[in-house]
Amino acid sequence: MAHRFKTPQTTYIGKNALLSAERDICRLGSKALIVIGKSMIKQGYADMLVTMLGKNSIDSVNFSEITGEPTDKMIEQGLTLYQNENCDFIIGFGGGSPLDAAKAIGILAGSSHKISHYNGKEITHAIPPLVAIPSTAGTGSEATPFTIITDTKNEIKMLLKGDPLMPDVAIIDPLFSMQMPRKVTVATGLDALTHAIEAFTSRKAFSESDLFALSAIERIFVNLPAAVKDGRDENAREQMAIAAYEAGVSFCNSSVTIVHGMSRPIGALFHIPHGLSNAMLLAECLSYIADGAYDRFAVLGRKVANADAADDDKTASGKFISAVSDLCKTCGVPSLGEYGIDKQKFLAAADKMASDAIASGSPANTRKPITKEDILQIYNNLWKE
Q: CA–CA separation, 188 vs 240, rounded Å?
């Protein structure tokens, strides 16, 4: 069976990647809408980008109104600015939210529909040229044709997808993540780990996606604790930036599974940051599904959890899941209760969340067959003593 392998058209990785990408960025249009995180403005990186564009006679306007994870209303606001300013290409610069928002604004720039129209549909129409410059090491949005936008009316996180959403240029420069706060480092790093684990254990995994997934998992286990301990550790930041990109490439090609399917409804209803809700679910979900893919989890156990040839696959899998749990504890991931979520409200919403999880399609990619009842059981397990 032939596999289709997708990556951004052009990627620049490493120190000074933005400056190296100058020619490729500036050929995309005459005026850019820069969808940017406020921290990038405060740290002076917005000025760096605007100056580079101006030197090439490229005009630009900043849109920095993405507060938290992007919603349909924020996207409409960005579209209005794009149209009023006569922009012809888009640059997403910041965390996963600005990058996701940049893609969604692009969807509407080439359409007459509202963003909710595309929930569950494949996006095929052309969007403006797109540049993705991440400042966090986690979402992998710079390497995928996906975006997640909250539908505020229906209280769901929409996974929107289609080849036109793959960035034309991706820029992986660790400079932009050096001042990332500890909590963001944790949430985004564990998001990247979830991407890579799910990509490797997905039904749709294949040899090329495995290469990127395994590399990302190894980098994260070594470098995330170092980045959390000392955010000024340049090597750890660079390795995590690369790992997030690798994880993005891996799940872009082989898909996420049960964790993401269950995480999105939690985020939509209880407003927990996406990477953190993934981390809260990670060990519990992996424990539940491991018996459907002991061979795959055993590979990971031998890669990062000191499982050896004497361990059978079930034992090696258990060692990997224990290592994941330990990493989450080292990073200070709270339980739902510790985060402040009310148990009764959570369980009352569990049926809707389980339905939304199944409807997303992601749990179906899990090697162990997953039903709504399985998801309800895992949601309940999150509250066990």
A: 10
Q: Backbone phi, then psi, for 370, in 5-degree steps?
A: -120, 130
CATH 1.20.1090.10 boundaries in the chain: 182-381
pLDDT digits (tens, 9 = 90+) for 56-81: 999 999 999 998 889 999 999 999 99
What's the pTM value of the predicted model, to 2 decimals? 0.94
Whole-number Å distance between alpha carbons of 252 and 338: 32
Q: Write the class of the CATH domain 182-381.
A: mainly alpha
CB 321 within 8 A of CB 276: no
CATH of 10-177, one of 1.10.10.60, 3.10.105.10, 3.30.499.10, 3.40.50.1970: 3.40.50.1970
- The single-letter DSSP state of residue 164 is G
Residue limits of CATH 3.40.50.1970 in the chain: 10-177
CB contact at 8 A, 187 and 275: yes
DSSP lists the bridge partners of residue 93 as 36, 133
